[in-house]
Amino acid sequence: MSDIQLIDSHCHLIFENFENDLEDVFQRLRSRGIKKLVHACCDLTEIPKLKKISQEFNEIYYSVGLHPLEAKKWELSSKSILKRSAQEDKRVVAIGELGLDFFKNENKTQQIDALIPQMELAFELELPVIIHCRDAANEMIEICNDLSKKGKCPKGVLHCWTGTPKEMEQFLDLGFYISFSGIVTFPKAHQIHECAKIVPNNKYLIETDSPFLAPVPYRGKRNEPAFVENVANFIADLRSSDLFTIAKQSSKNAEDLFKFNLIS
Questions:
Q1: Within 13 Å of residue 68, how many CA atoms lie on the same side as its CB?
Q2: Phi then psi dihedrals of residue 196, to 5 deg
Q3: Mean pLDDT, all residues of the chain
Q4: Neighbours of 183 (CB within 10 A)
Q5: What is the model's pTM?
Q6: In whole angstroms, how far apart are CA 154 and each of 101, 114, 193, 257?
Q7: Adjacent-strand bridge partners of 206
């Protein structure tokens, strides 16, 4: 067993490519010192599966929400379904993943119509948001600024950070955390490297986004939570630090954001 204690702050394990070896996946992550996982939700239909997997594996906490690429599925009843799901299970620690994605979809109005009610719900329930933001930083910052001016912007994290240092500073000014995935280990990810160097100690998380975006040296393979150690190691090098320090600090930040300590 590893002496390092890590938290994978964003993963997806209910997909088909984990069906045959999930027990092995958990043996590997436990051997690498991963103590907690936040399983992100993309679609309301995933919620029963997330509740079940969190009962099977004690490491798992999860979010409830609708991904921006699923925005067309948002209905009048969606907000009340999310609210009930969050209130019914103490292992729900966030709303999301929500956000904006203009890289694959240009249904801007539809995405915003799904985003705003989820942001409002998170603020109402005092839960953080997990934000997916791709090619939409300016719009996302504007929406968060508007909510902040009204005193109604929830806390949260920009997951799988791919933005610029300037964009990061704007989200940090709004109080958000920044989460780094395996992309930070890619040789050409220069702007993300710079962000990982300068992000404040108390404002970064680490994640895998399994099964996507496996870090070097597993790039191109199925990602899994055990590989979060590789992300942490790379960030340690960028910050002229060590694995133990990065693991301890990022885990504390995740604990502060998701409030695991309030869950028995």
A1: 25
A2: -65, -30
A3: 95
A4: 17
A5: 0.96
A6: 20, 16, 27, 11
A7: 180
